[in-house]
Design a protein that fits this description.
The chain is of the alpha+beta class. It has 20 helices and 23 strands. Helix 10 runs antiparallel to helix 20. The N and C termini lie far apart (about 115 Å).
Length: about 600
């Protein structure tokens, strides 16, 4: 018996020790919960009755120089599902069908989102970018749909649709690659929209605002009891462009209604290089990337032509280049402006016969320019030689980018004997004749020709084109100047050379191929061009600069119509529309939105 008692007392002692240890663990755990981790559990409990809905901030607007918003924001709503107290699992399918029918959504898509929200217990976005009309209809029905909540937000809106689309760009959802590049501390989420092209992309960090959020208290059924906190968003900064709204609109409408609907038009301020208009046709409507979800009537193709012909299209400048040939001959001093050359419609160079587009008879320098007589410039170039023409190209930065801050700008191609010599190939007489009239291997972009026109207007200043004037913060009102006058190069020609070029280009408007831009009250100087195209119809060019009578030129432009056949007939009317828009003539009033 003694042995059994001792053994029993040992068991009791062990049990007592284990009980003490277990009690100690429990006590320690209680202390940890009640004291050390009290706040954490309070927060967890708080989360069980609150839901956070992030609110996307309005993007900064994009304005033209005359204060018209060409990229702004429109009211939109997002529909969320708050799972706490929502329908039970077996009721989810019927619930989704009824909501989907009101939103014109596929029930299966909505069902998947509802199921995910019920499992995770998190606020789940069902559909975004609902119109005001749909939101108003849903508002009346929210009381019948437990766990639904409408959040007011904004969406990007381009009120003038295609206007300056290649410059403004568009926004879209981030892909996985973009998400990895983003710093989460900057407020980006997987659902964030970001700039994909143009100004929207270039100034993404400035246009994006600081997102807000709504902290909601919900009851056991998932109904919103009250807003605990409404953290207001902060709108992004506004970007002000140098564009003239009326000129841009005139250029785009005229290009769209041109013979082919394909081409480009660029207008610059020749006093500083500011871009007044930059249009590329066909344009696209960036609203297709940010539609109201409930207003889609069918599949919308998001395949657009992002090719910006104004800065990426390269073509022979044709007869607009005759100004370079004339400038080279005048600078060399071997051009008698009064000497007449008889145009019979062809020019015999020896190895071959070169044709003129017409038969002009005896022409002097001014008639040769105004009638764009090829024979006259063949004769001038034969005496002058190719080297001075090549040097004159370089004075005006042909064969080099304009320097505008846009992706993908092409440099074009300078044409002359230097490269041939470098490549140890021959330069022929025919090359000189082709060069003199802007054909052959010479290539320019529309913006390059506009830069050249502006340089002529300023008597030699080759400016870097710029299109952003300033950025203004919507929070502080602080203005940051972005654009500025920058001279890249000076074509330092003799004053009398510029005087004679001005006179010849004015004569071209008054009595020559550029008569379409003869406008009362304006001094307009212009040159037309028709570029040969071995692949189809010829291309049309028109280059001009103008100012009010008694004033210096304040606008320079270049218009290109692809397959337009004639510069005067195809591009000339577009140039006139742009000039009338800029000077507020006829149907155009600067700064109007009509």
């Amino acid at each position: 018996m003694a042995v059994t008692k001792i053994h029993f007392n040992g068991r009791l002692r062990l049990l007592f020790v284990l009980t003490v240890i277990a009690g100690g663990i429990i006590a320690a755990r209680l202390v940890d919960i009640q004291v050390f981790k009290h706040q954490n559990y309070v927060q967890l409990a708080e989360r069980n009755r609150t839901q956070i809905l992030y609110q996307t901030a309005p993007r900064g607007r994009i304005f033209t120089a005359d204060g018209i918003a060409i990229a702004s924001n429109a009211p939109a709503f997002s529909l969320y599902y708050l799972s706490a107290g929502g329908p039970s699992g077996e009721k989810i399918p019927s619930f989704s069908e009824e909501i989907a029918s009101r939103l014109q959504m596929a029930p299966g898509v909505l069902l998947a989102k509802l199921e995910e929200g019920r499992k995770t217990g998190k606020a789940t976005l069902l559909v975004e970018s609902l119109s005001v009309k749909t939101a108003a209809a849903l508002q009346e029905l929210l009381q019948y749909y437990p766990g639904l909540y409408l959040l007011e937000e904004t969406k990007r809106d381009y009120p003038y649709q295609t206007l300056a689309s290649h410059l403004v760009g568009y926004i879209g959802s981030m892909d996985e690659r973009e998400w990895k590049k983003r710093d989460v501390s900057t407020g980006y989420r997987l659902t964030s929209k970001v700039g994909k092209n143009g100004i929207e992309k270039k100034f993404e960090n400035r246009l994006k605002g600081k997102d807000g959020g709504v902290y909601l208290e919900v009851d056991y059924r998932g109904r919103v009891k009250r807003i605990i906190q409404d953290k207001k968003w902060a709108a992004g900064s506004d970007v002000y462009l140098t564009l003239n709204f009326t000129v841009q609109k005139a250029a785009e409408e005229a290009l769209k209604n041109s013979k082919t609907g394909r081409g480009a038009a660029v207008a610059l301020d020749p006093r500083n290089g500011a871009v007044l208009a930059l249009a590329s046709a066909p344009a696209y409507n960036p609203n297709i990337f940010v539609p109201y979800t409930d207003e889609l009537t069918g599949p919308v193709s998001k395949r657009i032509d992002e090719y910006n012909l104004a800065v990426q299209g390269v073509y022979p400048p044709a007869s607009t280049f005759k100004v370079i040939t004339a400038a080279a001959a005048l600078e060399e001093g071997n051009l008698d402006i009064h000497r007449k050359i008889t145009c019979t419609g062809k020019y015999d160079s020896g190895p071959r016969v070169f044709k003129c587009w017409g038969t002009h008879g005896p022409v002097d320098f001014f008639d040769g320019m105004s009638n764009s007589c090829d024979v006259y410039f063949y004769a001038v170039a034969s005496v002058l030689g190719p080297a001075p023409i090549e040097r004159m190209q370089r004075k005006f930065m042909f064969g080099r980018p304009t320097g505008i801050d846009l992706p993908g700008e092409k440099a074009g191609n300078i044409y002359g004997p230097t490269r041939r010599a470098r490549n140890k190939t021959y330069w022929f007489v025919g090359d000189t004749l082709n060069l003199s009239i802007g054909q052959g291997e010479l290539l320019v972009t529309p913006i390059k020709l506009a830069q050249f026109a502006a340089a002529l207007a300023s008597r030699g200043n080759v400016y870097r084109p710029y299109y952003v004037d300033k950025i203004v913060s919507n929070q502080t009102g602080k203005e940051e100047k972005i654009g500025q006058r920058e001279v890249l190069q000076v074509a330092d020609l003799k004053p009398e050379t510029y005087d004679l070029l001005y006179k010849a280009l004015k004569h071209t408007v008054d009595d020559g191929t550029a008569r379409r831009v003869k406008i009362k009250g304006l001094n307009v100087y212009a040159k037309t061009g028709t570029a040969q195209n071995p692949h189809g119809a010829d291309h049309g060019w028109f280059m001009a600069f103008a100012g009010r009578e008694g004033e210096e030129p304040s606008i320079a432009l270049a218009v290109f119509v692809e397959f337009g056949e004639g510069g005067s007939s195809a591009a000339g009317p577009i140039a006139r529309e742009m000039l009338e828009a800029y000077f507020g003539l006829g149907k155009y009033t600067p700064g109007t939105e009509s």
